[in-house]
Specification:
The protein has 440 residues and is α/β, with parallel strands linked by helices. The chain has 18 helices and 14 strands. It folds into three domains: 200 residues, Rossmann fold; 84 residues, N-(1-d-carboxylethyl)-l-norvaline Dehydrogenase, domain 2 (Orthogonal Bundle); 138 residues, 3-Layer(aba) Sandwich (Rossmann fold), CATH 3.40.50. Helix content is 43%, strand content 14%. The strands form three sheets. The chain has a six-stranded parallel sheet, sandwiched between helices. It has a six-stranded parallel sheet with strand order 11-10-9-12-13-14. Strands 7-8 form a two-stranded parallel sheet. Strand 9, helix 13 and strand 10 form a beta-alpha-beta unit. The structure holds uridine-5'-diphosphate-glucuronic acid (UGA). Uridine-5'-diphosphate-glucuronic acid binds next to helix 9.
Length: 440
């Protein structure tokens, strides 16, 4: 099928390449000429395992192209909207890019001769957006579907090609709904053939599935971080607790890793946008708990700082601290709402001399000349002469770091394991004072 993908950021670039991988002819459109040039040359603008391969393979096959020219979308059968919906000043999602994308697309819709033409929204939007956009899209003869994406950074290719489930938010009018469903089923046929559940629903429910899934995941992380605080106060061990409660299949093990909390471009902004939307709908109190979830997430970082301070005798002033990890999670170079960088800034505020390192994000950080901390190219540089180490992102390079080797580099043998990802026994045996989150 001929398809277009409007917005070639994280979601769009991966989606475009994955759709080409399925055998479709895909045009990715973006307003940023630099991004389009990089993608066209097969250079990914971000770090994502497996992405370079599918990008280059499909450019090579001629099925995947990128452009800034919206006119090229005319005649295609499916158009995906994959632009960003960042947090606005009030906390609500900013829909500027969605509106701009629709406006740029409109003159070129209604030219498909292959069958029903579908506009499929993938961006995370406030509930009610699709219903508002539908008449505009319908005026061109195209059908609107809301088809949210659940990909995780670090697993984006895998999640796109082998998702847990597919969600189609369909138009209310039955004939339109049926035609739109058939087009998406044809598009996703190789994925659906794996037996992936495909759920049909209305627009508001599809929009809500996406944002409530992220709200639930954020709540799960803050729940275990709240338990970590209780464990710290009561002398318990949150990793044993998580293991034990997770064995109840109603609870499950995943997303119960206590630590310095969630970051990234999705969970923090989505819980705030969801609250803002609930307020607008007059049901703000229903989501008041998400403010607590957000608050616990902030506090868990302070928790790590308190441990760091007490390890160095009550003051971090002039201490050299190595922060391992700037990306919000491993296998990503995304530093949006990075827990590690938030801690690095607070350490600086307390007078520490901070050096941050990250296998993927260090080069991005190093471009910023105004940083309040130093950036080290690698682990060895970062550890050299450190009085304290803070593990902020559980990259394998760091979790596999040999504590005996680390001991030969540092000035003081102190480590705060902000992800509960290290082997406490091994670090203690190498002479380190070891502290973690919610563990003795
Ligand atoms: C999240 C969702 O997991 C995806 O399903 C969703 O599609 C995506 O947002 C989106 O809206 O586009 P992502 O932002 O890639 O994906 O990151 P997550 O894997 O959810 O991790 C978020 C943060 O939570 C990370 O900082 C991670 O370190 C932290 N985390 C995760 C914990 O602190 N504990 C855990 O047990 C799990």
């Amino acid at each position: 099928m001929n398809i277009t993908v409007i917005g070639c950021g994280y979601l769009g670039a991966v989606h475009a390449s994955a759709m080409a991988e399925l055998g479709h002819r895909v045009v990715g459109v973006d307003v940023d000429p630099d991004k389009v040039a990089a993608l066209s040359e097969g250079r990914p603008p971000f770090h994502e395992p497996g992405f370079t391969e599918i990008l280059q393979r499909n450019i090579g096959s001629g099925r995947l192209t990128f452009t800034t020219d919206f006119a090229t979308i005319g005649g295609a059968q499916v158009h995906f909207i994959t632009v960003g919906t960042p947090q606005g000043p009030s906390g609500a999602a900013d829909l500027t890019y969605v509106h701009a994308a629709i406006e740029a697309m409109l003159p070129h819709l209604g030219r498909c001769t292959d069958g029903a033409e579908v506009v499929a929204g993938k961006s995370t939007v406030p509930v009610g957006t699709a219903a508002r956009l539908e008449p505009v899209i319908a005026s061109t003869g195209a059908l609107l579907v809301w088809n949210p994406e659940f990909l995780r950074e670090g697993f984006a290719v895998e999640d796109t090609l082998h998702p847990d489930r597919m969600v189609y938010g369909l138009p209310g009018e039955p004939d339109g709904a049926e035609r739109a469903r058939a087009v998406l089923d044809e598009l996703y046929a190789p994925i659906l053939a794996e037996g992936i559940p495909r759920l049909l629903m209305d627009y508001p429910t599809a929009e809500l599935v996406k944002i409530s899934a992220n709200a639930f995941l954020a709540t799960k992380i803050s729940f275990i971080n709240a338990m970590a605080s209780i464990c710290d106060a009561a002398g318990g061990d949150v990793t044993s607790l998580a293991r034990a409660i997770g064995m109840d299949t109603r609870i499950g093990h995943r997303f119960l890793r206590a630590g310095i909390g969630f970051g990234g471009g999705c969970l923090p902004k989505d819980i705030r946008a969801f609250q803002a939307r609930a307020e607008e709908l007059g049901v703000g109190e229903a989501l008041e708990f998400l403010a607590e979830v957000d608050q616990i997430n902030e506090e868990t970082r302070h928790h790590a700082l308190v441990k760091a301070r007490s390890m160095l005798g009550g003051s971090l002033n002039r201490a050299r601290v190595a922060v391992l990890g700037a990306a919000f999670k491993p296998d990503s170079d995304d530093i949006r709402c990075s827990p590690g960088l938030a801690i690095a800034s607070e350490l600086v505020d307390e007078g520490a001399q901070v050096v941050v390192t990250d296998p993927a994000a260090a080069p991005i950080l190093a471009r910023d000349v105004d940083l309040p901390y130093d950036v080290a190219d690698d682990l060895e540089d970062a550890l050299t002469a450190a009085d304290l180490i803070v593990l902020a992102t559980e990259w394998t390079q760091y979790t596999h770091c040999d504590p005996v080797w680390a001991a030969t580099l540092v000035n003081g043998r102190n480590i705060v394991d902000g992800r509960n990802a290290l082997n406490p026994k091994a670090w203690r045996e190498a002479g380190f004072t070891y502290a973690a989150i919610g563990r003795q």
